[in-house]
Design a protein that fits this description.
mainly alpha, two-stranded antiparallel sheet, globular
Length: about 260
């Protein structure tokens, strides 16, 4: 029960940060500037890269080795499966990226607003899984408080980058003529998959704990797919962007510190 409370708290926090970002629609009515777009997307990419390494892949390898397995095998296998999982969703679910106006997924007559929400919702699936699994791993090793500190750090890092993601949904919807209240609610809705997938993954992990290394690396593969496929390209539209590059590095640095610092 305490494990579920921790997971609910962690995923609830990152969901709250998505809603907080969506609330910016009450302050601004227009789309964020291109420079801010690059900063937000680059920062999110850097956070997710660092989280994939220190919060997911490294613990997956350590957990596998502690169970007497060859560490890189479940790490590599889960990573590939996670990337394929997101690839499949990316190709199947109709969605639209606000900053590029490119429709992806199966052909659909779905409204543009729904497609915008779907795009960010896809991003949030691996984030909810990552936070949920981090707390599940900490609960399995209850005697090691550093793991709880690392899980909290991951939730903080993901929460920080969820703020601009919430704004990235609500502001374009408001610009297209939707009311501020409805734009806000849809922005929040894009993050509701985080607690759902976080709690679902943790419940599954409780029954298949020997597969924890696979699950951790699965989340890492899914997150890095999002980074490489969408976030980094959208942070560098058109010509080369130093702002986008520095934002990626800044997000990576902050998340790395949040991950590593609890161990000292």
């Amino acid at each position: 029960m305490s494990q579920l409370i921790w997971v609910a708290g962690g995923t609830g926090f990152i969901f709250f940060m998505t809603c907080l970002g969506a609330a910016t629609v009450f302050l601004f009515r227009r789309r964020v500037s291109d420079a801010m777009q690059k900063i937000f997307l680059g920062f999110a990419a850097g956070v997710m890269i660092a989280a994939s390494i220190w919060s997911l892949l490294v613990p997956a390898i350590r957990e596998a080795e502690a169970n007497g397995q060859i560490g890189w095998i479940p790490a590599a296998g889960g990573f590939i499966l996670g990337a394929l999982f997101l690839y499949g969703l990316d190709k199947l679910i109709p969605h639209l990226h606000a900053f590029s106006n490119v429709r992806e997924g199966l052909a659909s007559s779905t409204k543009r607003t729904t497609l915008l929400v779907s795009a960010v919702t896809l991003h949030n699936i691996p984030e909810g899984m990552a936070v949920g699994l981090s707390f599940a791993l900490a609960a399995q090793h209850d005697a090691d408080p550093a793991l709880y500190a690392a899980a909290v750090a991951l939730a903080i890092g993901i929460g920080l980058q969820n703020f601009p993601e919430g704004a990235a949904v609500s502001l374009p919807l408001r610009k297209e003529g939707m009311s501020a209240g409805k734009s806000f609610l849809l922005g929040c809705a894009s993050g509701v998959v985080e607690p759902i997938f976080g709690l679902t993954t943790v419940l599954a992990a409780g029954f298949i704990s020997p597969f924890m290394p696979w699950l951790l690396s699965f989340a890492a593969g899914a997150m890095l797919y999002v980074v490489v496929e969408e976030l980094i390209p959208e942070a560098h539209p058109g010509e080369h962007s130093a702002i986008g590059t520095m934002s990626v590095m800044g997000g990576f640095l902050i998340m790395m510190i949040l991950d590593v610092a609890p161990g000292y």
